[in-house]
Structures are given as structure tokens and as C-alpha cells.
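Example record for the data management plan.
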Amino acid sequence: MTKTTTIYHNPRCSKSRQTLALIEDEGIAPKVVDYLNAPPTVAELKNIVKKLGLRPRDIVRTGEARYAELGLKERDAGDDELLVLMAENPILIERPIVVSGEKAAIGRPPEAVLKIL
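Corresponding structural encoding:
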């Protein structure tokens, strides 16, 4: 059985576009999820974080205005709260994230995803 490769993609992000092109150059036609318009659920985010081997805080975009608006600079939100906030505010999710089988990688730099394909 072939593994499915999924990219959580923001078409306006250059790193995301570069990562998608890199995957396609490898001959893989990934499932493309425009996560800003179709955000992952809390359960999906929990699974992604587990496959990345990271904690939710590790995939939060702290430079986003929404991060400050939610007061996340001033407080130490727990993992479960962060997962809910990311599902409700997908702009907070680092991009792009590629999931392939039981592994995942963040495409920063884009070449980082090659090790999981």
C-alpha cells in the first residue's frame, strides 16, 4: 500500500509553494490542504504534532498578529488549549507541514521534507 502525502499549504507563502514544487518534483502528487480555508481539527493537529515529534507550541507562528491578539505572548497556554486555538485560528499554524505515512516535517527550509518522502 502506498502512503499518502499531504501538504498543509498556504498558496500565498513562498516557502509553502517551494515545498509543494519540491514534492511534485519528486514525482509525488500530494493531497493539498489549504489549511486556512479548511483547518485541521484538534484531533488532526494532535496527530500531526505527534508525527512531527514536537509539542503544539513548537508549531505556533508567534509572529502573527493573532498570536498577540489572543494574549499568547503574556501567558503560557497548555498543549490542549494551543491545539484548540490553532484549530480555531489556523493562521497560527506553522507552514507548510507535510505528512507522509507515519512521519511529518515542516518545510522550513523546503528541503527538510525530503527526508520523510
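Summary line stored alongside the record: Residues 4 and 20 are 14 Å apart (CA to CA).
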